[in-house]
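User: I'm preparing a small set of examples for a lab meeting where we compare how different chains pack in three dimensions. I only have the primary sequence for this one, and I'd like the structure in C-alpha cell form so I can line it up with the others. Please keep the answer compact; I'll paste it straight into my notes.
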Amino acid sequence: MSIQIGQTAPDFTLFDSDKNPLQLSSLKGQNVLLLFFPQSFTGVCTKELCSVRDNIALYNGSNATVLGISVDSVFTLAKFKEGQQLNFPLLSDFNKKVSEQYETIYQDWILDMKGVSKRSAFLIDKNGTVQYAEVLENPGEVPNFEKINETLKSLA
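Assistant: Understood. Below is the C-alpha cell output for the 156-residue chain.
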C-alpha cells in the first residue's frame, strides 16, 4: 500500500552527503519536504533541485526542511550538491530501503538499471503526518510544486 495523506510518515535514518546520519523523526516540530529523485547529474533532476535551491526562502519561511533522496552514493551526492550549490541536505538511499518503504522505486529503469527512486514528493507536517503525496511514473515530469506550496502554506 502506498503512502497516503493522513498517515504517519515512516521513519528512517539515512546518511547525508557529508556522511552524517539524519533521522526523519529528529525533525519533528518542523515541516519536511521529501523529494525522491532518480539520479544526480541528470537534466530533470538538476532542474528540479536547482529550482528548489532558488526558492529555498519559501521553505525556510514556512519552517520546512527540504531533503533530497536518491539511491546515489554519498560520494556522488556530495559532488552533485557542490557542483549545483544546493542549499539543503541530500540523503543517500543506496540500499534502497527507504525508496521501497515509501513505495517510490522503479524495479526496472533505463539502461537495464534496477531499483532507482521514482521522482516523488511527500510533505510531512510538524507532527510527522503526511499532508501531500505524489509519486510520478514518468521521470521526465516534476512534482506539482504549486500544490506542494499551497499545502505548505495551509500548515502555517
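A couple of notes for your slides: The chain has five helices and nine strands. The radius of gyration is 14 Å.

User: Perfect, thanks.
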